[in-house]
């Protein structure tokens, strides 16, 4: 069997030998820096309890919609890729379906990450396509039962310094508290306030969520007043438990400042089940404004992730639920949508607003100019469909000439797949080295400055932007 291309030290670096040599030196400068992961979806309980990872398919295939969506697009029903039910296929059968589909992943970001994991995390020693499905399954399964392959040891081996999770506003954060108080654990696992299901009236459990929120943290107040008070109180609870940011997954980045009477009117309509679609959009935009106001007051970094048409295929959602591969990006308008928030808070002291997009066209047209003026605005890293090598290079090319390097958030892996974290950060560092190497080769940036910039981009920027 031949060595996997994931072991090639020049992967993702420029093809031109001279530029590649510069990139190698830049990469060496940051390759061993600790991983700062200020936004992701790993469950804190996995770290707290040091839970062994499940079988290969349950770890690497079934929960990863990046993986299952492409296999599904090529003819495999989703029920052949998901375990757990009484009639579901077994783990080994799912893995065989995945290995049969492995050639489909050539050239994709998922293929790159997975190949990197197979080589550097699981030590397969050969490309997956050159092994039988059962041989690769057995090799990975054997690693998963090793005592040194538990989450806490991998946290250390991956050189993770900070890992942020994404959490419901009413989560008691017991796992985060236990980790923070454990003297044997040296990393930081931080909660993130994610209130989408409490702000979006269209969410199927919004009313029930609001009931629980007001009852838990409303300080005895009812209605809209109790609702706002409860959100403020829960944000403070998160801050007390180490949170540095509040994240918002919204359809659009619309913001709107309503007077209190109008906000109360729509809130009560929604509670009675009488809000229109226009009411729902108006209220969510108002609440995004309120989240900005609260961030100015409590210091939580505000991050916005808009632009995805969630659950595009209703039959798949009905059968398998959310996050099963059929969320599709759409065009996003930031300049007008975010203006009400920036009018009042764009220059507020210590307010940090990190803007993400799935619409590449806004990088140079809207986001870089916004970040190039407002002290509060930072450019979120390429995300979801855009956290791929070529897309990350396009991002750097699109924003740097207007906003420079200092207005970027640093890399955001945004992953649920714990074992993919080092692969994703490694890819980002290689792309940053490649981009800077081209600027050096073109005599646009000195090599000394490029070495300073890449350290700032990889390490200092996420610490600065997320107040770490």
TrEMBL record:
GO function terms (MF aspect): glucuronate isomerase activity
Keywords annotated in UniProt: Isomerase
Top-level taxonomic group: Bacteria
EC number per UniProt: 5.3.1.12
Biological or metabolic pathway of the protein: Carbohydrate metabolism; pentose and glucuronate interconversion
GO process terms (BP): D-galacturonate catabolic process; D-glucuronate catabolic process
SUPFAM superfamilies documented for this protein: Metallo-dependent hydrolases
Main EC class the enzyme belongs to: isomerase
Catalysed transformations (reactions): D-glucuronate = D-fructuronate
InterPro entries in alphabetical order: Metal_Hydrolase, Uronate_isomerase
Family: Belongs to the metallo-dependent hydrolases superfamily. Uronate isomerase family.
UniProt name for this protein: Uronate isomerase
Originating species: Pseudarthrobacter sulfonivorans
Biological classification of the source: Bacteria, Bacillati, Actinomycetota, Actinomycetes, Micrococcales
